[in-house]
Amino acid sequence: MKQVAYLLGMAVVAGLLLSACSMDRKHGLCPNASILANTSTATVFKDRMEGDPSGELYELTMTGVTSDCSFDKDEGTADSSLTLTFRATRTPTSQAAEYTVPYYVAVTRDSTTIVSKQILSASLAFRPGEASPTFTADVSTVSIRLDNGKKPYDYGILAGLQLTQAQLDYNKKMGRFAP
After folding, report:
1. What gap in Å lies between CA 127 and CA 34, rounded to an integer?
2. Contact at 8 Å (CB) between 158 and 105?
3. Terminus of the chain with fewer CB atoms < 10 Å: N or C?
4. Continuous segment of H or E residues that includes residue 2
5. Residue range 118-131: mean pLDDT, rounded
6. How far is CA 178 from the centre of its chain?
7. What is the share, in percent, of the chain residues with pLDDT greater than 90?
8. Kind of pairing, strands 32-35 and 134-145?
9. Quick one: average pLDDT of 58-80?
């Protein structure tokens, strides 16, 4: 009986150790994906009302990013896919509205150098009476060719809204993301 309990205990410990080894080991190699705070929120205004809070059409916030990746050691490449989550808000109205939202995905090396940047767009739709929809956008591939001696985790993926200078200025004026 003691021997059976001992073997059962060893099997449990071995199973836990093996699952810890295989558990998301690939994820530790992947580039980290995150949202750049300074570009996570945009306020869009009605025509000729730029910067006037009473002319706000809607506000958009990028609220989350998840990623997955594959690493080809022989080719020296890492390919990531992303799902970005957005939340829009507006004053409730009986009118439906649709907008195209520009955002970017950039690859950085060693947290200091931008290696590549893509400008993409997502569709935002407000149904009649809807004030705060949440939606996602999928980026099927972000490819990274690794420099000699670099690992996938030496790179990062940054996402954010592609803001105009006026939108950046408005974020500063409103005290968003001030140091």
Report:
1. 29
2. yes
3. C
4. helix 2-22
5. 96
6. 21
7. 60
8. unpaired
9. 93
Sequence-distant (≥ 6) Cβ neighbours of residue 138 within 8 angstroms? 81, 82, 83, 84
Radius of gyration of the chain (CA): 22
As a whole number, the mean pLDDT across the chain is: 83
Residue 42 near residue 36, CB atoms below 8 Å: no
Tokens coding 174 = 């409103």
pLDDT at 28: 62
Q: Which range has the worst mean pLDDT, 15-19, 98-102, 117-121?
A: 15-19
The predicted model scores a pTM of 0.79
- Return the structure tokens found at 40: 């996570």
Contacts of 71 (CB under 8 A, 6+ apart): 26, 29, 30, 77, 78, 152
What does the alpha-carbon distance between residue 83 and residue 139 come to, in Å, rounded to a whole number? 6
